[in-house]
Structures are given as structure tokens and as C-alpha cells.
Design brief:
Rossmann fold; 6-stranded antiparallel sheet; Glutamine Phosphoribosylpyrophosphate, subunit 1, domain 1; 8-stranded antiparallel sheet; binds 5-amino-5-deoxy-1-O-phosphono-D-mannitol; alpha/beta; about 25% strand; about 600 residues
Length: about 600
């Protein structure tokens, strides 16, 4: 995925564009560029590498303009070179375009335009867009009409922003990739995501698929592709700009790990009443899930691990549930019947694989629900209903606080569904809710006393890292391994504890530390599996309460406070997040922007 920024206003656009790109760098960081109207025409600067490299080139010689567009890229077509960086222009540099998404018919468009004499200088699909606009201008269409015709010719998913030489406007269109307009007293912003301009305004308008926005110094016009006005009322986002900075922390990931007491408190605020054992998921009154008898959860990566956690909570509540990888859904989806609820779990709400599964479920007639961190995201709009996890902006590519909030919301959803399902078995809400209310404080205590940095230092030279867990500890073992490999670049795997002996045990040596997660459920069995690894020489780092039997066997210990078995895994997960973070820090990895990855993946 990539990040788009645009600015139309009275002041210099360059600073806004560059700070917007820095705020969006989590969306892609292999090249970046800006284009401005400088009074004489369109001027473009673009570079492979990070926004900091672009910044140096923008000041030398100085670039000026009040209207501009910018882009930070995560390559899909062509390597991250200067040529492939956005903005792309037509051959006369009268049109500049930035784009996020995939133009599926670009090869066809490119060959037709080439036959008419257009010369292309990049490997990207995006470059066909400015050439198409140029083509329609040459055909005699005006700027707006040429833009609409060009957009109409595109197939695939896109968020596009274009500038045409001499006109003080940005033309934008959305189909399948997010775009949001920010409005502030004579200043207008356009971006893939709100944090790009949050320091300037919290008044936003989310574009819908099929929308065209024309941003001019005197206002924004929203229409459909045919030019008919559409009503897009402004909304106020309640994210604090401070939240989008690193504050006292060296990395966003560490800040976001430490934000979990606050983000979880926000997640549950007003939603649980431990005193009268009730749950109030706004918009889901008692009875709102009447008739739902099966749940399919679709998600990718960390969100898939949260979905797995949610599916276990649902099954325990008596609701048959399955977590499915969204990218496998089209080839392995179980049947959708009356009574099937499909829940898409996605931090960003923009993951292409998850959107595709959601749309497939919708086409099959399922009732759909999105659990997301981004209220106006595509997944929230595509689904029949949505629930916001309220974790606040997450910038580090490695998902941390959003996993905890997703898992908690899915556990609450399990209780709500069980209460409505005729044959639902109510589970232990009397002890679960007080445990949940205490979770933020317990995480706070864990963060203050964690020895994860010392554990990381002790094992940072190991060959491979194994994480094992049972029940709710299993998704956390998978998540521990994903986090570890994602930011340390070291080999790590997560297994169900009982699976170790069915194959992976062959890999266990004194060079492969094993991290067993003890949640208080069938710990004796997990202990036995741990012993099997220890006997083969594996160092053991037990993730468990202080007085747990596993500490006698283990070489080292990551403490989790005593809590409900249904919540212990979430505490263990925080310790594992910290171990990964500190190991990656010792290895001097670019923790917030691991190589080859992007915060949200908008291609299938
Ligand atoms: O935005 P989503 O939750 O849909 O993203 C899904 C995955 O790409 C994401 O969870 C990814 O695995 C994490 N960055 C890993 O830390």
C-alpha cells in the first residue's frame, strides 16, 4: 500500500506535504515524491528511499507552491527506483498523479496509449493515469472532464489525486482504496489516512467508492463519477495529534505497547458493567443477534490471531465459530447459511484480502460485521455493521495494542452473541468482567516490572525461537512468533503446545529457546510439552505467574500477573511483544518499518 497527501491552501504546501508524508510513512517507505504548482507549471521531486531523502532534495534548490500532492510508496509494480516513485506525469508534465491501489487493465491501456505515441518512463501501473488524462485533454475535453474520463477507463482499485498545470485544484477519486479530505478554515487536505493531517484539522470527510472530489481554494465539491453531487457530511475524529507522535519513546512500537493500559481502557469504556454483569456494545442491543447460530471470522496476520482468539471465545460460549485466513476464504470458505455471521477483523479496515473475503461473504448472503480501529474504513462501510476497537492510531507496522483491543472486543462479542443465541451457553461473565476491568492496571504493572529486555539480551544470538501455547495461549504463541520474525528478521515459529511432538521437536536444540505460554488451562499438559523440549536441550523461557510450577523447570521466566484464564494469554502477549521489541532493538533493526512490509496491505 502507499500513502497519498494533498494540500490546497493559502500557505506554502511543501511543509504540509512533507510532514504528511512522514506521518504516512508507515503505509509504505521505499520511495517518495511531491509535485507542486509553482506558478510556472508543475514541478516534481521524487526519490527512492525514505521521506528524509526526499526532504533533502526538496530544499535543494527550494521547491515552492500553495497547491501540491505527495506520495510515499510500497512497490507493487516495478522496483523502488527514482523513476517508479510517484508523482507520475504525462510527457509534457502538464498532469501529475499520485495513486494507491492497482490498475488491473494498465497493460491494455499502456499499449493503446503507446500506439498513439505516448512514451512511458516507469514500470508502474500508475503512469497510465496522467497519460490518459493528457489523451483526453488532447481530444479537446476540459480539465474536469478529462479527469473523469480517465478515471472511468480504469479497472481495479485506486485512490487517485491529480493536478493539472495552471489550475488551482486537486482532482481526486476513490474506488477500493481509502481517501479522506480534511477541512480547516480555507485550508484543505487530502490523504489516505487521517494522521497525515491531524495536526492541522480534525474535521474530515471520507470519500466513498465511486466518489470524485475536487478540492479548490474556495471549497470542496463531492460528486459521483458522472458529476452528480453527492452529500458527504463532515465528521469530527476524536484522535489526539499527540497520539500520532513518538513522544518519549524511541519507536512507535514501544510507545504503542506502553499505550495498552490506556487503549484497553478506551476499548471497554462504557461497554462493560461488572457490577450488574452486563455488556453494552453500542448498536447491538439484546436480541440484535437473534437467529445467528454460526460465526466465521476472516482476517490476516495479527488480526487473524485475534480472530482465532475470538473463535475460541465464541466456541466456549456455545457458538460454533471458525477463524479463516481472509486470503484463503475464496478457496476454502465453509458454507454460508441463514444464521451465519461473518466477522471481518482488521485494524486498518483496508486490507485487500480481508475486504475481498468480506465482499464474498456478503455476496453469499451472510450478515457481515467488521471489527476495526478505523471508523470510516472501507471494511466498516462494506459490512452491514461495524464495531470500533477504539485503540487509537497505531503507526508501527507491527500491530501491538490493536491485537489486545481486537481480542477483547471479540470476547465481548462472544458474550453478546451467546446471550442472544437460543442454545448459547452463558459463560463465566461474573468473573470475566471484573477481570477485564482490571486488565489495564494489570498490564500497567507488567510493563513497569517486565524483564523482557534482559531475556532478549540473553537469547539474542539464538538460531531460532519457538513459541507454544494451548487454548487461548495458542493464538498468542502464533502472534509471539509473528512479531518476533517480523521485526527481528530471525526465524521464529508458533505452535500449539501439543503439536511440538508431532514434528517441530526435531528442530529443537540448545540453540532454539522455547517460550511456553501458561494460561491456567491444562497447564500440566503444556508443562509436559515444555519438558519434552527441555530434555532435548532447549532453553525454556516460561511465560507464567511467579509461583507457577513451570518456573522450576525453566531457565528464565517472564512473569504474568494472576488473572482469569480467559485473559492470561493477553498479558502473556504483552511480555512477548516486549521480548521481540528488545531483541530487534539489540539487532539494530528498523523496528517501526521492517523491510518489505507495510502497515496495511491493499493488494491481494
Ligand atoms: O489492518 P489489518 O489488521 O487488516 O492488517 C492485517 C495484517 O496485515 C497485519 O495484522 C500484519 O500482520 C501486522 N502488521 C503484523 O504485525
Amino acid at each position: 500500500m502507499c500513502g497519498i497527501i494533498g494540500h490546497v491552501g493559502t500557505g506554502d504546501a511543501i511543509e504540509t506535504l512533507l510532514s504528511g508524508l512522514e506521518n504516512l510513512e508507515y503505509r509504505g517507505y521505499d520511495s517518495a515524491g511531491v509535485a507542486v504548482q509553482n506558478g510556472a507549471g508543475i514541478e516534481v521531486r521524487k526519490r527512492s528511499g525514505k521521506v528524509s531523502e526526499l526532504k533533502a532534495s526538496v530544499g535543494n534548490p527550494g521547491l515552492e507552491g500553495r497547491i501540491g500532492i505527495g506520495h510515499t510508496r510500497w512497490s507493487t509494480h516495478g522496483p523502488p527506483t527514482d523513476e517508479n516513485a510517484h508523482p507520475h506525469t504525462d510527457s509534457t508534465t502538464d498532469v501529475a498523479v499520485v495513486h494507491n491501489g492497482i490498475i488491473e487493465n494498465y497493460a491494455d491501456l499502456k499499449s493503446r496509449l503507446s500506439e498513439r505515441g505516448h512514451e512511458f518512463t516507469s514500470d508502474t501501473d500508475t503512469e497510465v493515469i496522467p497519460h490518459l488524462i493528457q489523451h483526453y485533454l488532447e481530444e479537446g475535453y476540459g480539465n474536469e472532464s478529462a479527469f473523469r474520463h480517465a478515471i472511468d477507463a480504469l479497472e481495479g482499485s485506486y485512490a487517485v489525486a491529480a493536478m493539472l498545470s495552471g489550475e488551482h485544484a486537486i482532482y481526486a477519486a476513490r474506488q477500493g482504496s481509502p481517501l479522506v479530505v480534511g477541512i480547516d478554515d480555507g485550508e484543505y487536505f487530502l490523504a489516505s489516512d487521517v494522521p497525515a493531517f491531524l495536526e492541522y484539522t480534525d474535521t474530515v470527510v471520507y470519500l466513498e467508492d465511486g466518489d470524485v472530489a475536487i478540492v479548490r481554494p474556495d471549497g470542496v465539491e463531492f460528486t459521483n463519477l458522472d458529476g452528480r453531487p453527492v452529500s458527504r457530511p463532515p465528521e469530527t475524529v476524536d484522535w489526539d495529534p499527540e497520539q500520532t507522535g513518538k513522544g518519549e519513546y524511541d519507536h512507535f512500537m514501544l510507545k504503542e505497547i506502553h499505550e495498552q493500559p490506556t487503549s484497553l481502557a478506551q476499548t471497554i469504556e462504557g461497554r462493560i458493567q461488572p457490577d450488574n454483569a452486563s455488556i453494552d456494545l453500542e448498536g447491538f442491543e439484546p436480541g440484535s443477534f437473534d437467529g445467528i447460530d454460526t460465526v466465521q471470522l476472516v482476517a490476516c496476520g495479527t488480526s487473524y490471531h485475534a480472530a482465532l482468539f475470538g473463535s475460541l471465545a465464541l466456541n466456549r460460549a456455545g457458538i460454533p465459530a471458525r477463524a479463516l485466513l481472509a486470503n484463503e476464504y475464496s478457496v476454502c470458505s465453509p458454507p454460508v447459511r441463514d444464521g451465519t455471521l461473518v466477522v471481518a477483523v482488521s485494524q486498518s479496515g483496508e486490507t485487500a484480502d480481508t475486504l475481498s473475503a468480506l465482499r464474498a461473504a456478503d455476496a453469499e448472503g451472510a450478515r457481515t460485521l467488521t471489527v476495526t480501529n478505523v471508523v470510516g474504513s472501507t471494511a466498516a462501510r462494506v459490512a452491514d455493521e461495524s464495531i470500533c476497537i477504539r485503540a487509537g492510531p497505531e503507526i508501527g507496522v507491527a500491530a501491538t495494542k490493536t491485537f489486545s483491543s481486537q481480542a477483547v472486543i471479540l470476547a465481548l462479542l462472544a458474550h453478546r452473541l451467546a446471550a442472544d443465541a437460543s442454545d448459547g451457553t452463558p459463560f463465566d461473565i461474573e468473573s470475566f468482567l471484573p477481570g477485564l476491568a482490571a486488565l489495564p492496571d494489570r498490564i500497567d504493572g507488567l510493563l513497569a516490572s517486565s524483564n523482557a529486555d534482559r531475556i532478549a539480551r540473553r537469547y539474542v544470538d539464538a538460531e531460532s525461537y519457538f513459541f507454544i501455547g494451548r487454548g487461548l495461549g495458542f493464538p498468542v504463541a502464533l502472534e509471539g512468533a509473528l512479531k518476533f520474525k517480523e521485526i527481528t528478521y530471525e526465524h521464529a515459529e508458533g505452535f500449539a503446545s501439543g503439536e511440538l511432538k508431532h514434528g517441530p521437536l526435531a528442530l529443537v536444540t540448545p540453540e532454539t529457546p522455547v517460550f511456553p505460554v501458561f494460561t491456567g488451562e491444562e497447564d500440566e499438559k503444556t508443562l509436559k510439552n515444555t519438558e519434552e523440549a527441555a530434555t532435548r536441550g532447549a532453553p525454556v523461557v516460561a511465560v507464567c505467574p511467579d509461583d507457577h510450577r513451570a518456573t522450576e523447570l525453566a531457565d528464565a521466566h517472564l512473569e504474568i500477573p494472576e488473572t482469569e484464564p480467559s485473559l492470561a494469554a493477553l498479558l502473556a502477549n504483552v511480555q512477548l511483544q516486549l521480548v521481540s521489541y528488545h531483541a530487534a532493538d539489540l539487532l539494530d533493526r528498523p523496528i517501526d518499518k521492517p523491510r518489505n512490509l507495510a502497515k496495511s496491505v491493499t493488494v491481494e
